Amino acid sequence: MMMMKLTENDRKMIHQHINYIPRDVSHYSRAKSEKQYLTLDLNIHRLFKAFLMKNKESSVSYKFYRSVFKRDFPNLSFHRPRVDTCHTCDRLNSEAKQISSAGRSATQQLDLRHRKVQQSLEYMKNQTANSQLPGSEKCCITFDLQQVLFVPTLTHSDMFYLSQLSCYNLGIHLSDCNHAFMCMWHEGVSGRGGNEVASTLLKLLNSGVTQKKHLLLWSDNCAGQNKNRMVIFILVFLALHEVFETIEYNFLISGHSFMSCDRNFALIEKRKRVMKAMVPNDLHHVITSAKYDPPFEVIDMSVNGFWDIKEAADTFLNTKTLNISKAVTIKINHKNPTVLHIKETFSEIEAWKKTNILKKGKTIEDLKYAEIKLLPPVNKITENKKKS
User: Model's pTM, two decimal places?
Assistant: First the structure.
């Protein structure tokens, strides 16, 4: 049987087909990478089948389609970016392979970094265990944003060419009682920045989810969402109003921030693969059925909206001297909530550094009775996505 020769025109048809499919850029690594991502519902085989349905007369084979995809689209992937990939460890591992003084130095740095990682994980493990002891007054909480959930779930070839709605889920896990809240909204309501994360935390922590007075909080090192003055503001605000007497905010080392939230997200992703979600409310059902005893509790953040925490933080706080980027733990006490105690390691030997973050000309009373404005809903859906 004679094989038909594939032409440059066939290659162009494949290019047009692949370029027509919506893709996502990593929210976390767009400044460092040109990688783009197709939804996990897709793979090369499904793309090829969709291509044949649109080009019924084409003689393109799967092998040729795959080779074009692999060779001509090196920055396109079906796998969402690993948020916590450790670039430092990757670099040091590469350098450690050199047979030189630079290689030996990289090996030593890598060993030191792994010790710090182990130290932080052990510290979180001990805090969690202590919070679960009978009579403990400590509430240990981890929180993180899940990777974007898209609706509708792709089920047929026509859906490949439609843009999907991005839905956001901030998971908040109470480790002392093993209860998790999934706080959800979508891009038609707002984005997924520091204001949204801080507003969600403030709403939940101020709602009486725990009666304990000592809060132990853990997150990753994402500056735009977690490690910023907006989250610091709401923690100071909660301590000032004596919702908590003490707050300790800890950060896991970048690339090594596996928490209870991640286990919860894995259950949700697994459930989503077998339970199709077509609209945002369907995701609520996916999440509540992803785990039993106790089930995840969904909070719809689109109902009451978000607050402008950034404006409030800019008005009352001066965090320039805080050096928050290097901090691994921050302590806040309700007796003097604007004086923060900071450490750059989890070592017991390191002394705490004190920093007053209240702006000059502002008083504790001003901060205590500050009016935090509601943010107007902001539709983040692009025009191209609306058209599709």
Answer: 0.78
